[in-house]
Amino acid sequence: MYRLVISNKFKRAFRKFARRNADLQARIEKTIAAIENDIFADNLGTHKLEGKLSGLLSCSCGYDCRIVFSLKTDDESGEQVVLLLDIGTHDDVY
Questions:
Q1: Burial (0-12, 13-18, 19+ Cβ within 10 Å), 53
Q2: What residues does each domain of the chain span?
Q3: SS3 for 72?
Q4: How far apart are CA 78 and CA 61, in angstroms?
């Protein structure tokens, strides 16, 4: 189980993306719940990014919807933390 932290940028991008794609909102919420359980679940298609986003991870939550996040370990608790950074279409986030 991972602890989710949602960045302000992700919140803004989510509101904007959800307004344009209201039908995807439930799927996005389901994907975020799946990330919290296992970021490497097969249905998420989690992969490492390269180039300017090197060191970050991305997963799919629909045909043209991507979530960009980082995976860190909390120094004090040793807990795995998933920081949600951005959401949008492939072209928006990459």
A1: middle
A2: 3-93
A3: strand
A4: 28
By three-state DSSP, how is residue 38 classified? coil
pLDDT in tens, 52-75: 999 999 999 887 899 999 999 988
Distance in angstroms (rounded) separating the CA atoms of residues 27 and 29: 5
Q: Is 10 exposed, middle or buried (0-12, 13-18, 19+ CB in 10 A)?
A: buried
Domain 3-93 has CATH 3.30.2310.20: yes
Q: What is the pTM of this model?
A: 0.91
Cα 23 to Cα 89: distance, rounded to the nearest angstrom: 14
Structure tokens that stand for 28 in this block: 């996005």
